[in-house]
Specification:
Elements: H1 2-10, H2 31-51, H3 79-97, H4 103-121, H5 126-130
Helix pairs in contact: 3-4
Amino acid sequence: MIASLCYACQQKAERVDITTNKNLYPNNDARLAVLMRKMDKDMRDIKKAIENGEALPTYSEDYLEIKTAKSTDPSVKTEAFALMADNLLEQLDKLQNTAPESLEAQYLLTINACLACHVTYCPGPVKRIEKLKLLNLASLDAVDWSEK
């Protein structure tokens, strides 16, 4: 029995694809949902880099698909959604190209662009997105998106 426990502990854990795990993500694999999950991961990596004073990782070029990617609910693809998507892409571009002294403020603008859209179209992830805020800047943000 001990031998089988030792053997089991030596086995590598099965890797789970964070973008398509159906147990974790009820919205299946609509391309927009996959992009949002990838964006969440990338934004957590960017947040960590800012907190540690490291160079920012680049965000995925896949995000350019945000306006054309198939969504779980086709009714979200409105003109307002397209404008919010354009704003997000602009904020991401600015984040990648901003001066170090403006990085935290630009990061907050990027997170707020995510929140503005999610409050309107898909409120489920709002609390998760709120957690992406930098703690030292959370008090500067006058908008409490979780109450919207």
